[in-house]
Design goal:
heterotrimer; A mainly alpha; B alpha/beta; C mainly alpha; A: mainly alpha; two-stranded antiparallel sheet; 75% helix; globular; C: mainly alpha; 12 helices
Amino acid sequence: MRITRQLKIIYMLLKMKLSRNMAFRFSFFGVFFVDGSLFLIQLLMFSTIYSQVGSIGGWDRSQMLFFIGTFSLINALNMFLYFFGVISIPGKIKSGELDLYITKPVNSLFHLSFESMDIGSLPLVFASIGILVYAASGMHKQITILTIIGYAFLVFMMLVLYYDMEVILRTIPFFVIQASSIERLEGEVITLCMKIPGTLFKGAFKFLFYLVLPYGIMATVPTQFFAGTLTLVGFVYSILIAIAFTAFTFAFWKLGLKCYKSASS
Amino acid sequence: MNIIHTKNLTKTYIRFEKEEGLRGSIKSLFKREKIVKTAVNNFNLEINEGEFVGLIGPNGAGKTTLMKMLTGIISPSSGTISVLGYVPNELKNAYKKQFSIVMGQKSQLFQDLSAADTFLLLKEIYDIPEDEYRKNLKYFIDLFSIADYLNVQVRTLSLGERMKMELVAALLHNPRILFLDEPTIGLDAVAQKQIRGFLKEVNREKGTTILLTSHYMDDIKSLCKRCIVVNNGCKIYDGNLEMLFDRYQTHKMITVTFDEATSYIHDFNVQIIERNPFKLSFMAYRKDVRHIINCIMTECEIKDISIEEEDIGNVVERIYSDKGGALIEEIF
Amino acid sequence: MKKYFETAKVLFKAQLVYRFDTITSIIFTISKVFLAYVLWGAIFGKQSVVSGFTFNSMLSYYIISSFINQLDQSSSTGWQISNEIRNGGFSKYIIKPMNIFGYFTAQTAGVSAFLLFFNLTAAVIWIFIFRVDFAITSNGWYIQSASVLILLGLLFMMQLNYFIGILAFKFLDTGIFMMIKDNIVQFIIGSLIPLALLPSGIIKTMTFFPFYYVSYLPTMLLLGRNGNEIFSGIVILLFWNAAFGLLISITYKRLKSRYDGVGI
């Protein structure tokens, strides 16, 4: 009952977002080109780098490509589902626009997150899947339905983890006034660790990007699973991390709401 | 039934001061000047179901802060609030379904869509059953006569039309309490009057409890029986609006015109506004009016005389400048 | 000329007050260097030379190119121009008795000049943090021509961003052009990876376009390479600068009449 109601609201929000987009046809297609160009550039960059060597961190070419496909997929799903909603949060905290969300009988974080779904990113989701299929075909590996289900499940969990990180950083403006550099930091950290195979991190970096800012596992773990190199410990660890961060995110958001100052207009 | 209840409600803000310039920015990283500002101070409030209460006070008095605490948007620093038996800042959905807030400066309608689109979303958010939604929508469309621009892009509506839509959006789920923060701000006289009419109707027909802040004294005067005056975060008056005016509308304005040049002099305790040989206008204490008029009538040949209520602005100024809680009068 | 200098000076001062953000953004150039450190560290574990780069020269490449790219602040000026055109604030530049392109160039130059110092500091710090055996050239001719190329490149980027900025006269939402441009530019000027890694056919094509010379070639020169491209680089950048100068003056004349027509 609760779930169906939430889904219904997501559906309504998506429908309204679509109609709002239709009102600006140019932007509607524009977003696709913006996301598409970014996608292409990233793909180009990493395939160029990884093409320089035969293997990297124990991964061969097709596994590398599959890794690129995985982070593209997570990123594209993120943009499609919640990215634009989540990034609007600091602005809404600052302007006091959050008031209207707080007084609605729907979880305010949920409402904010799924209010600005971006249809323009949907083609990128398919493009990413295309890369994945191409990479998988080069892996010379028996692919069972179980591999696909497990992979999809891990991608989903990592998508949740990605969401958690995105929200946590955007909850900070509840407590401090100037937080733009924090977002900037996020952008840099993402370029940094989500796109480097986590297996390359050693020592303190491993601790940092596997536990503190777990961007390092997001694209790595599903890829490892698909390639059959993920240990059971690694599997359980990534699930636990996702659950722990989700619990923290909700608690942190709640705490943030308690500290909300609601700027008077 | 008592549905809003606060006890010793206090909200303080901590602000930081920063010196200007890069040097100041760097310095503020280590050491900041703290300033504590009390927005709402020891506020006690009781409101009964079905009341229409006006909240007045100058800018920064704490009206909006009070309202934000009642709706759970911000949490109080100390004291207790109970609204409909809920603690607002716990932000329970069951509570949120029973009130609505309209802020004159914040729109909840999607600018690029029609109001009807937003209403559909609200139907889902508030879980309004289909038939109740239809019934309510029809009721408000008739009441506000907005059928013509229900399906028009909100961006293109006039301010008055938009505010009507905002009110409908807030009322669709039959809230028991409606909080209104400056709903008539920026509207022209006609639209203001219309909105007042609707609010009155909603309060009477649906029994909705309404708490209203406004800068327009006319809003408060024509709508609220009970009025709460806030200044510097403190309640300085709580009671019947007419009694408030009785107390503070202490003067009458008297204007006398003469046929011939007259230089009438008398040592009444009045404040002269205008004086020339053919016209005399002044403010006098209400209790003295009878005596003064009598004197003038008997001693001079007058052409015309008018006695008016004092300008509302003066009254408001006098109310606000009254410091402290000495005048609090609980009549409920 | 003096008024342009004054404009640059005012903007330089304004930075002291407003751009705490920009300074932090320079500090974040560390991420690019760090990315290179981790990624290339893993790749160079297997082989010592990739496309003529050693690990050291690769890190030096990222440090130098981050430095040069931070000098280019014209993109935010482009955003500012299109925003001001859209919300009507552009009139205040039209009525000023100075060349508008000159004004914005001076403004951008003021910002860049301010950042130069922080930029240099950051670069030096990265060199120490990552213990790079910094592979900068000592060849004076290379350094001088790199400086000339950098200046011409900055001018070109300024023209490009100004051009896209004034397109706001015609198009409602130039933000999309700006974003697409930002995405593409960061790749083709070689700030993400050294262009030398690309297939030679693509590199050949890129040498005809100005982006190759904005940050990639100066960086390579400072690393002591690609000296044979100095002459053609300067000629091609001059050509593109002239071409864009012409394009801007034509476009501006055409579009401005529309602006007046709308009467914002």
